[in-house]
Amino acid sequence: MMILPGNYGYLWNSLLLFIGAFVVLFLSLAGERRNILIALGAIFALSSLILTILQTFSGIQVNSSIYLTGYSKLFFIAILVPGILSLIGSTRRPETGQPGLMVFIFLVSMAFMLLAISSYNLLYIFVAFEGVSIPTYVLAAYGKGDEELEAATKYFIVGAFSTGLIIFGISLYYISTGSLFLGAHPLFSNIFYLAMGLLIFGFGFKLAIFPLHGWAIDTYTGTSNPVASFLSTSSKIMTLIVLVNIFFTSPSFFPYLKIVFAIISILTMTFGNVVAISQNNVKRMLAYSSIAQAGYFSMIFLVAGTSVLKFAVVSLFLYALAYGFMKGGSFLGLESLENYDMENFSGMYRRSPAFAISFSILLLSLAGFPGTLGFIGKYFLFLSVLSTGTPMALVVVIFAVLNSVLSFYYYGRVIMYMFWRKGPEGRVRGSYVFYASAFFTVLFGILYFLLFSYAHGVITAATGLFGGL
Fold this sequence. Notes:
The protein is an all-alpha fold. It has one domain (7-468). It is built from 19 helices and two strands. Strand 1 (60-61) and strand 2 form a beta hairpin. Helix 18 (432-446) crosses helix 19 (448-461). The radius of gyration is 21 Å and the shape is globular.
């Protein structure tokens, strides 16, 4: 009897990750050959990415809860790219723990991320979201050192608290609408607004927006660099898109949504950048920079219900992809160092010109320097928000530009140390994935029109955004 997968065949990008995860796990029972297992995991993840790029999602409804569009496709790519970089970058980790389990967790987490952002039922979203959260609690402790265990414990405690808020928000959403599907019309407005507020707080912890960011600093700093790269990129992008799906299908909440996220955006980007200035530990500086980036991402909610929605989605994709390269690559670059103090970066150009140039490119891209993909992403994101034509959008964009200028100070400080300060002797070797991140940041920064045209074509060909709701 032949089994016909039907529309579920469009979920092969997720199924490949699940299959790869269990293949790696079973093979690890025969021997923990670290590089082989990581390479095998990377092959499955790359296959999923290639399949995603080749697939056409024109409003494919897998079932009543999963809806695949070009919008889904774009952010599958934005999640998979930094996830693959983080997985490959973990080959430089010392021989600790069980590499088979680590690769298993990476792949399972990415698979659930893809399911979470393509779901339009809050129960599905919650299950998929926890399918990401629970494995990453384990991943944060990978290495079993004191710092990793402390970081994982803090991450778990905050994660459990945010999960409680999410469940409470979902229950109130159901009470107020009588449905778990996104886009349901609220019957009891006050309860509905309370549900939306709880969901902002619950998912806001995962997105690490101010003032719900505290766990992220200790977790990113305390865990290994590949895990910090994964949590600060793929996990954050997934959370953002889940929030976009929830709130962009709730038009009755739009007036409050824009006010709330205008405030959140300004406070988050300003706090992250101001505190990052005083950091002498580069890894901790990158952690605070991640908070600031969450503030820039939060600007997307100001375009809800406007005519620039498709342009904004394309812009968000460009910035999310840029963020995956520049933030993920920056954390992975630190794998070459044992000490992350600013002084240890002194004279880096003399010790390793390739490392200094690559790290400088990624930092400049984070700041939004012209010629990099980070600049392109910020430019189009800011432009899409400004195109809404509201005074509130103008104020937020002004703060965003000022914060971007402010970030040049602390990023430039690291670059100054690498190029113009004398430092210790000894060569530093960066990883190929670190160099590749810097290379693609510049390449796509120059050839950005190819990415923009591709993303615009994918969105235009789709039958509808946000599940066609």
